[in-house]
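Narrative of activities, Objective 1.

The group set out to show that a structural description can be obtained from nothing but a protein's sequence at a throughput compatible with the screening campaign. Below is one input-output pair from the validation batch, recorded exactly as produced.
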Amino acid sequence: MQRSGGILLLAMAASLNAAAAPLTATEQRIVAEVKAQSAGALALLETSVNINSGTMNSAGVRDVGVLYRKEFDQLGFTTRWIDMPPAMQRAGHLLATREGKQGKRLLLLGHLDTVFEADSPVQKWVRDGDRVRGQGVSDMKGGNMVIVQALRALQRAGVLDNTNITVLFTGDEENAGDPKSVSRGDMVDLAKRSDAVLSFEAQILAADGRATGTVGRRASSSFELDIKGKQGHSSGIFSQGSGYGAVYEAARVLDGFRQQVIEPGLTFNPGVILGGTDVNYDSTLSRGNAFGKTNVIANTVTIKGDLRYLDYPQRDRAHARMREIAAASLAGTSATVSFGESYPPMAVTPGNMKLLALYSQASDDAGLGKVDAVPAEARGAGDIQFAAPFVDSLDGLGVSGNGAHSPSEDLEVATLERAAIRAALMLYRMTR
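Output recorded for this entry:
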């Protein structure tokens, strides 16, 4: 994907350089409607940000869903809540649909949840001049608001009727429920019945400040290391009888990964490590504990990590080398590495590049400048990756900010209006 993606990016550059064209009278009205409702859109965003909706806070996720559901009801959509099986411990998804016969069948994606759980100390809405901090303000409650604001503008301009637009706001994008065939089954079915999928995750700004679009994303997967050693008195460490212990073996394996599993676009991050003589880890809550003493050689280390790759051949190469490194154990130890899949890769395709060209043209025609493609390795995983194998897809159409997933996550307020203008014009042109 990396090689073909680069060729596609170069081949499509000419289409992204098409000259700006004047907006029609209807398009000018759409832009005016977006601007007229910017203050109200920001107020609604504040309300949503001040509702904690960490993935595991099902009640909070549903509350945010109720907030947006009212908006879609007022826009003439048919709405319903999609529940997940109780065993999955996920809130479910909000679905809003309009059935028409005009233009492309569009699927718009957002998500209601954030990484900030109910006990998070991160502040909620905090305005500081032209920026706002808050839980999920850019990832991706701001993107949800771009969808609402763009659709409002189309309705007020009288061009929303007879369109075929579906909106799906998932409740567990930050930690998708298992099995994925259930938690993303509705999304896949909707994608197969659509002509294009547009996702409104946060938009990355280029070095010169211009907006970008996401035409490819790396897969999100996991690795787990199970390390064993011989428990014994610490004075025997390194001896023939005691060996090196689980902790030294863990250090060897991780450093081997760091030095030997190297490819452009490939990353692997050991997110949690627990070691000692008694280790427990709860994957559902992402919490664990370990017991050990300094005068005892540790017999167990558990490591949970994240692995991201551009395409399946790259994944297979990484898996093979990581297994080889794990197998070359120190004396008295053993290491086993296993892998899990989460989000599939989103390949760069001609169809995706065509969507980017349409988006860039809408932006340029509105006086907001052209939009370039962001490299696939610059983005994390996103829901659109479950839809992208079946339909032309474009992501990164949301707001811009800094510090996603951190206490400093923020939003540049002006990007909410700009993103809504681009989206509204693109939606209008695709539904004619």
